Amino acid sequence: MITNIEVILADVPTIRPHKLSVATMQSQTLVLVRVRCADGIEGWGEATTIGGLNYGEESPDSIKVNIDKHIAPLLIGMEASQVAKAMAKIRKIIQGNRFAKCAIETALLDAQARRLGVPLSELLGGRVRDALPVAWTLASGDTAKDIAEAEQMLELRRHNIFKLKIGSRPVADDVAHVLAIKKALGDAVSVRVDVNQAWSELDAVRGIAALEAGGIDLIEQPVRAEHTAAMARLAQRFSVALMADEALHGPLDALAFARNDGTDVFAVKITQSGGLVPAAQVAAVAQLAGIGLYGGTMLEGGVGTAASAHLFATFGELAFGTELFGPLLLTQEVLRTPLVYQDFMLQVPTGPGLGVEPDMDKLRDLRRR
Ligand code: MUC
Ligand code: MG
Questions:
Q1: Class for domain 2-117+359-366, per CATH?
Q2: According to a count of CB atoms within 10 Å of the terminal CB, is the N or C end of the chain lower?
Q3: Residue 141: pLDDT band by 50, 70, 90 thresholds?
């Protein structure tokens, strides 16, 4: 039986300012959910957002209040091992709130996988890989600093895929910045961009043409999420891969993209999809429709990153890798044993459930009171 649900907000500074077209992050608010069960088992989930309400329609504060006041009371007393039944109830009664639902579903599945003594990936269909390629986002806002940072990552053998955050400067300036980095890093390194919706369709036509000519591999969410027709036209016009991110809020959006040939690649995010199970459905649609897959992040800490890793490890096709570097952007580790990043890959945890344990002493210090 589910006996208690607790939401913990913890503010953690980032290792450097992280500049997106929608916000500059100096710190990240981790939103951690702990579900306790009558059999003594507990499960953890995470619902971290980016830049408060800058990126999406849920904030850390709204997630906490909505779980505390509206979601937890529906779950307390329910059978903890019946995760699908619990989530069906929440999905029927609670509109929206995808991030909150994701954290709850993750915590319930973590608890259930621990109860069964299996890694979470095995409840999600079973892993087909034990390690995932991980991109690093260069977002200092300064070309020379970004090149130095990328060279350091290559040297450490931590990342050889780089995503550049652009869209806040004029298109020509952004293109010059990206191509200078691509030239410095060379052909063996994959360089991608994330425009975070900043371009008009005409900006995108100019920007993508120049980036494609310069050898950039992937263009993420160039236009506004709701401009799906523009996105489809761009995907059909250019041969460089275009990826939907902010436009993808779960299986129904995935189906619409598949129906209208609207994109080449999906950035699958467990929070944006509304949970691990709907995120698996997004991936299933992609695989059925021949759309490429990329494992996305909302810059979560260790709990959400581990949950995402368990799901992405089940994807048969993962042509564009992942960006599960969230914990590495933070100055504080909140897991007792950090996730392992080596040889350009994240190792998918192998213990029961998420296979990670939050460090309660650290969280006691970091949590908001
Ligand atoms: C996004 O839009 O992809 C993921 C990596 C990063 O640096 O920002 C996020 C959000
Ligand atoms: Mg993105």
A1: alpha beta
A2: C
A3: confident
Read off the tokens for 36: 């306790």
Residues lining ion ligand 2 (Cβ < 5 A) are: 194, 220, 245
Confidence band for 21, pLDDT divided at 50, 70 and 90: confident
Model confidence at 137: pLDDT above 90: yes
> Which string of b and e fits 291-330 if b means at least 16 CB within 10 Å?
bbbbbbbbbbbbbbbbbbbbbbbbbeebebbbbbbbbbbb
CA–centroid distance, residue 115 to ligand 2 (Å)? 35
Q: Are 366 and 127 in contact (CB under 8 A)?
A: no
123-347: CATH architecture: Alpha-Beta Barrel (3.20)
| pLDDT above 90 for 24 | yes
Q: Please give the Cα distance from 46 to 33 (Å, whole number).
A: 6
ipTM score for this prediction: 0.98
Q: What's this model's pTM, rounded to 2 decimal places?
A: 0.98
- Whether 2-117+359-366 and 123-347 share one fold: the answer is no
Those residues with Cβ within 8 angstroms of residue 235's Cβ, 6 or more apart along the chain or in another chain = 242, 261, 262, 263, 264
Pick the atom of ligand 1 nearest to 325's CA.
5
Q: Where are the domains of the chain?
A: 2-117+359-366, 123-347
Count of other CB atoms within 10 angstroms of residue 156: 11
| pLDDT average, residue stretch 57-83 | 98
Cα separation of 166 and 54, whole Å? Answer: 16
Catalytic residue among 165, 182, 246, 269: 165
Q: How many angstroms separate the CA atoms of 46 and 271, rounded?
A: 8
